[in-house]
Design goal:
Elements (H helix, E strand, L loop, with lengths): L3 E4 L5 H12 L3 E6 L2 H8 L6 E5 L5 H15 L4 E4 L5 E2 L7 H29 L2 E6 L12 H21 L4 E8 L13 E2 L8 H14 L7 H13 L6 E4 L1 H20 L1 H4 L6
Parallel strand pairs: 1-2, 1-4, 2-3, 4-6, 5-8, 6-7, 7-9
Helix pairs in contact: 1-7, 3-4, 4-5
The structure holds NADP nicotinamide-adenine-dinucleotide phosphate.
Length: 277
């Protein structure tokens, strides 16, 4: 059955691959992005099943306008993909409050703006699926990635809580936790670095930048395969609460679970000794 998908950040990277896959599968697609001309260049001109809409996710008013325009054209949105995001890298002490606010404005608050805009329509329809694109940075800390990790960990807490709130309305929230995928994520166009003084971290910071630049274009994950996986998940009777995307993500989650279990056991007795006598 044909569905209506709404994708943020659809002009490039993973968002573009998702939009292409959704379109190829015969669904309606609301492709949103900061630059409508870029959306048209990437996906072709709009037609009966393709609606391009301007949406900078930092703008709550624009998110509301996009959701209303999508509903006006196609009725309720069936699948929302909160994909727009970027990584801000740098050691915490070289980041500034403005860096932190900018990272959260897109990765977390942008996602919230779009959820707020789309959820009323999903609740009214009594159905809906939201894919919130998190990351391996959403379940483990990475040195030189504290702001990105903080924003993606926040995405996880937000999404898990939201999932329980909207379940009674038959709306599902699924976290997607990609490993490293070959998109523009590590390109100069997308990646941002800390804007404060590096101080004692100067050498480490230079090494960090070089190591990410060296990985650009050589990432193992194929974004077209991740896009295809989202279509599979959307057809599942019960999509999962979280989905690990990529063999690297699976390996890192296994290591994370093992280290959590080991630490829990090592300190179990002290942890459990806190009840009032
Ligand atoms: N690639 C990876 O290795 C990887 C790993 C884990 C998680 N992820 C997550 O996957 C998602 C997609 O990233 P990607 O890999 O596809 O990176 P990408 O190729 O750099 O694409 C990022 C997309 O986000 C959009 N975007 C950024 N800020 C925006 C804003 N304020 N409003 C609307 N759109 C905005 C960009 O639009 P513009 O063209 O307007 O800049 C672009 O379409 C992100 O949430 C990222 O954190 C990626």
């Amino acid at each position: 059955m044909s569905k209506t998908w709404f994708v943020t950040g659809a002009a490039r990277g993973l968002g573009l691959e998702i939009a292409r896959a959704v379109r190829a599968a015969g669904h309606n697609i609301v492709a949103t992005g900061r630059d409508v001309a870029a959306l048209e260049a990437a996906l072709g001109p709009g037609d009966a099943r393709l609606l391009h809409l301007p949406l900078d996710v930092r703008d709550a008013t624009e998110a509301q306008a996009a959701a209303r325009a999508a509903e006006q054209r196609f009725g309720a949105v069936d699948v929302l993909v909160n994909n727009a995001g970027y990584g801000l890298f740098g050691y915490f002490e070289e980041t500034t409050p403005a860096d932190a606010e900018a990272q959260f404005a897109v990765n977390l608050f942008g996602m919230m703006h779009v959820c707020r805009a789309v959820l009323p329509g999903m609740r009214a329809a009594g159905r809906g699926l939201i894919f919130n694109i998190s990351s391996i940075a959403g379940f483990r800390g990475i040195p030189g990635g504290s702001l990105l990790c903080a924003s993606k960990h926040a995405v996880e807490g937000f999404s898990e809580s939201l999932a329980r709130e909207v379940e009674p309305f038959d709306v599902t929230v699924t976290l997607i936790e990609p490993g490293i995928f070959r998109t523009d994520f590590l390109s100069p166009q997308s990646m941002r670095f800390a804007s404060g003084a590096a101080g004692d971290y100067a050498q480490a910071s230079r090494d960090l930048r070089q190591s990410y630049q060296a990985r650009d274009g050589k990432q193992p994950g194929d974004p077209a395969k991740l896009a295809a996986a989202l279509l599979t998940l959307a057809e599942a009777e019960k999509p999962p609460a979280r989905f690990l995307a990529g063999s690297d993500a699976v390996q890192l989650m296994e290591a994370r679970i093992a280290s959590l279990e080991a630490e829990l056991e090592a300190w179990r007795v002290l942890s459990q000794s806190m009840n009032a006598d």
